[in-house]
Amino acid sequence: MHADVLIIGAGPSGGAAAIRLVRAGLSVVCLEQGGWPDRNSYRGGEADWELTSLKDWSWDPNIRQNPADYEIDTTDCDHGIATFNGVGGGTTLFNAMWPRMLPSNFRSRSLAGYADDWPLDYAELQPYYEQTDREFGVFLGLLACGGITVGGWLAMRLQERFGISIVNSRRWAFTLGAFLMLGMGFVGMVESPYAAIALLSLGGFAHQTLSVTVITMSSDLFPRNEVATAAGMAGTLGNAGLTIFSLLIGGLVATVGYTPFFVSLAFLDLVGAAVLWTVVRERKIEPALRTA
What we know:
- The chain is an all-alpha fold.
- The chain has two domains: about 30-120, no CATH class; about 135-280, Growth Hormone, Chain: A (Up-down Bundle).
- Helices cover about 55% and strands about 5% of the residues.
- The chain contains eleven helices and two strands.
- It has helices at about 10-25, 50, 60-65, 110, 120-135, 140-160, 165-180, 195-215, 220, 225-255, 260-280, and strands spanning about 5-10, 30.
- A two-stranded parallel ribbon has the order 1-2.
- Strand 1 (about 5-10), helix 1 (about 10-25) and strand 2 form a beta-alpha-beta unit.
- It is globular and about 80 Å long.
- The termini are far apart.
């Protein structure tokens, strides 16, 4: 067998390098110590996922002890090891977390006086970070972050454009976010993981849009000396609801799966929008008393 390039390890770095070399017209062979993980054996959606994450699906190969694993001496290490031998490498266990190194990480010697500075800086790697993000679908997750800004901006634009009250503009922004949440109902039904990620990202965007909108309504509905109390009670009740919903998922997912919960997420915010329009009333501003 002849190949222009031999890559050792089919983890995220080896995979990214292989696909770019192939696109450049080179023939590539990638050697991997482990095999192809069986997606049907993943335990993330099963009732025993917490138990298996401590043994068969542990981050630590010394604990996991799969046939492809080898023992790693961590006696002198301040932290454990997180690795996986198989096609995909550590991404098999990474829970969709995709952090970048910070610019300061490249200058540890100059800034903090330990280790050595890298021979290159963040700016040189940034274009490759962005290219890899696009190829792995990471950019879809960034969509969810945009809702934090869009919620307030949209309410302001609606108020300016149509001359409606600030409370009504927030109601409309919340309602738009609630309708965008409908896509969450299809997450458990699509076959493509990319489609599922896109729908989850849209749902994250929608949730951030409506949540930041409704949270700020406390300053529009309550007197200044009551805003902190109202916001605190809203946060407490919201987290109580989150706890209850999480317990329901944990207790029922093994029997009914995730799809019913995604469907309920798709429609519950529409119920919230109906409550905002029918129950919540704008605060009447009492005219200031004039003194002689």
